[in-house]
Every structure is written in structure tokens, then in C-alpha cells.
Amino acid sequence: MTSRDVEPILDINGDVRESEPTLDTYESSTNINEDIDSIEIDRFHLARILFFMIGLVQLLPMNFLITADDLWNYKFRDVNSTDTHDKTELQKFFDSYLIIACNSPFLLVYLVSMTQYFHRITIDLKIHLAFIFTIITFVVITIFVKIDTDGYQNAFLKILLILVFIVNAAAIFIQAIFIGLAALFPLKYVQTMVAGQAMSGLFAASTKIFSLLGHRTLVNNVFIFFLLANLVLIATFALYLYIRKKPFYSSFVYASSSLENNVPMNLSLFGQIFKNMWPFCLTLTFVFWVTISIYPSLFVLITPVDHETVIPEKFILPITCFLVFNLGDFLGRYMGQFVLLTKNHGYTIMIISLFRLLFIPIFLYCNAQPRHHLVFFTSETFFIIFNFIFALLNGYLVLNVFVNGPQLMPEEYRHMSGYFLIAFLGLGLTLGSLTSPFVIDLL
Question: Keyword set for this entry (predicted)?
Fold first, then answer.
């Protein structure tokens, strides 16, 4: 493959046009994947299993931390009071602190990915460091579950938020790197990774429900809950270390990463990427802006009209809120593979994402308590149906963005598209976090 002194201009179809020589780059090979695919095979589908597991662990720390809401209420309770209904200041604001700590690393990842020093680091070293930081930090968080922090709640809050920031920053690096790498493989590998992302929330919700089935104490339940997350992280890293040496994986990744590392990073190039991908970038922002503005903050306030339900009270919230949403999100990403839009339907995907704004007033008129307005959808059955449809669209749109967005890039730029999409995902999460309190005030 020969280098040429031309500036790559990316058109809307993802093709490269040549202009005046200003930038050293590499000529894209449009049939590289087809040639490699005809030589190597994915034995026992191990590479595909790896991408599913990678999708699972990308969002695993955040999903497990958010789902363990009962632990944080216990950790930040008033130890001198027996009344569990009156929340302390730490309990009231912890969810907001947690969401900010989970989402704020996105900006850091984007800024770091723009530096020349970051792109001098090999792909392998980036992945190794990201996994090591994720595993070690989550192990420390798990240990704190067993430690009595009643005597220093404020200090523990600061330590915990720092750990949450670090573990999510490392997980976001994993997500950004592998979104780009997956685009170098056949389409089914991207779809498998996106399905793994959805399974992360479903896995956290299901594990939480199963942890409540026994008669263990709250601390022991959450400790086992977090311990399982650590085992999944370690198993995924071990699988990666094994797969990375296999011919099928290395033929795709290392044939491209050598090109990517030589591409100069500058604002002009990022502007060209945005010009190609902007409908998908904005769609990703809209999707997570709307989702985070009401989930889980508004959803956890939905209460059943009939308190004498067949479902025990401790299972109502994990099932109707977390399990239903994550099941819908997973099915949206899975079934979306069979009705996938093409990369030329960026405007259509963006319009569908704007349509989801209608769900905000719909959920506001469900039985969320406390409130100052009348309830229109009194039965929790309505909430479950709306929750499922809302999540289904969430998963379908995210699948289309992650599959089609990088495909608009020439092969040597697809790895950078992962960092770009992650930046707009983080923007959506941040806007959603800031919007959420205002939505709650509308009740």
C-alpha cells in the first residue's frame, strides 16, 4: 500500500476525493476485508464472542453502579435514625452525583484522543491499560461494599466518585477503541458488539433480581452482585489476550491500525469526519439526551396504583423499570439487524430520534409520585408498555448509528470514528443529566 501526498476529502458516500497536497495519508483499500475474509476464518466464532463480551463490558460498570441503588441508600443513610423514609442530603443528591461521575469522562476521552501522543501508543497497549484500570478500580469499589463507611460518609462519597470517574473513563476508552475496530470486520461483528452493549443493562438488571431471591443481607447481596461483574471483566480481558494472537483477528486489526497510527490528528480532519457523519452523530446525541432525561430518574418514581400486587415490593422497581427497559433495548438492537437501514438513511434515523421526544410528556402523565398534576395513565401496565417501546426505539437507533456511521469512512479512518461517536454519545448523556432535574420539576 503506497502513501501519497494528498488531502483526503470525504464525501457523503464515504469515498475519498483527492485535492491539493497538504496532508500525508494512505490510500484506502476498498476490498481489504473481502480479501482477508477469504483467507482466514473465525474458528468456533471466538472473535464474534469476543466482540459480544466487549460490548457487554463497555457499559457494565455504569449499569451495575446505577442498579445498586439500594446499597448507596444504605451507605448514605442517617445512622442515628430509624426512619428509613426520610432521605438524607447525601441520599437525595447521590444519584445526580453518580450520573455526573459516570458521564463526565466522555469529554476527557475525546480530548485525549485528539492528541498526537495518544496515537503514538499502540492499539494493544491502549486496550491493555484500559482493561487493567477498569478491573482494578472496580475491584476496589467492590471491596468498599464490605467496609463500614458509616463514620466517614462524606469522605467515602468523594473517594467513591473518584473511583467511579476512573472506572468509567477506562470503560469508555474500551468502547471508543472497539467501535472503530469492529468497523474493520464484517458487518455481523459490529451488530454483535452492539447487542452485547444492550445485554449489559439486561445482565445487570437480571443479576440484581436474582441477588434479591435469597435471604442474605443487603451488603452480601450487592457484594456478590459486584463480584460477578468483576469475573465478567476478567474473563473478557483473558479472552481478548487469547484472540488477539489468532490469524483471523490480527489480519483485520493490524492491517489497519498501522495505517491509523500514521494519520495526522488535527481539527481539519475531524471536521471532515463530522461532515460525513453528522446525521449519525446528532442522532446519537438526541437518543441519549432524551433517554437519560427520564431514565432512570423519572422511571424510578413510577408507583403501582394497586399496592397489593402479586409481585413482592422489592422486585417491582427492578422489574418494571430496569428489566423492562433493558429487555426492550436489547431486542431493539437484536431485531434491528433484520430491518437495518442503510448508511444513506442518516436523515431518516435522525427524524426517528426526534420523534422520541413525545415520550417525555407520556411518561410525565404516568403515575410518578410525588406530583402536583393529574395522572392520565393510571395503570402501571401503561408504563410497562411505554417503557418497552421507548427502549425498543433506543436500541434500534443506537444499532443503526454504530453500524452505519463508521461505514461512511474510508477503511483507515474508521478507528477514529469510534472516538468521534463516543464524544457525541457523551454529549447526549451530559445534556440528559442536566435536563433530568427540570423534567422531574414538571410533575
Answer: Membrane, Transmembrane, Transmembrane helix, Transport
Q: Which residues pair with 145 in a beta bridge?
A: none
The single-letter DSSP state of residue 339 is: G
pTM equals: 0.79
Q: Are 208 and 318 in contact (CB under 8 A)?
A: yes
Do the Cβ atoms of 320 and 383 come closer than 8 Å?
Answer: yes
Residue 197 near residue 403 (C-beta atoms within 8 A): no
Burial 315-333 (b: 16+ CB within 10 A, else e): ebbbebbbbbbbbbbbbbb
432 close to 48: Cβ distance less than 8 angstroms:
no
- Omega before 247 within 30 of 0, i.e. cis: no
Cα distances from 211 to residues 75, 219, 425, in angstroms, run: 18, 11, 31
- Which domains are delineated in the chain? 46-78+87-441 (1.20.1250.20)
Cα angle 377, 314, 148; round to 5: 130
Quick count: other Cβ atoms within 10 Å of Cβ 266? 12
3-state class (DSSP) for residue 368: strand
Average pLDDT over residues 261-272: 65
Cβ pair 165, 101 in contact under 8 A? yes
Q: H helices within 212-266, ranges in order? A: 218-243, 247-260
How do residues 144-170 score in pLDDT, each as one tens digit?
Answer: 999 999 999 999 999 999 999 999 999
Exposed/middle/buried for 295, CB within 10 Å: 0-12, 13-18, 19+?
buried
What mean pLDDT, rounded, does the chain reach? 83
Give residue-wise pLDDT tens across range 289-331: 999 999 888 888 888 876 666 677 778 888 898 899 999 999 9
**In the prediction, which pLDDT does 330 show?**
92
Which cell is 360 given? Answer: 417525555
Q: What is the pLDDT of residue 265?
A: 55
Q: What is the pLDDT of residue 370?
A: 80
Question: How far is the C-alpha of 281 from the C-alpha of 427, rounded, in Å?
Answer: 10
Cell (9 digits) for 274: 463530522
- Scan for cell 459480544, then name that residue: 52
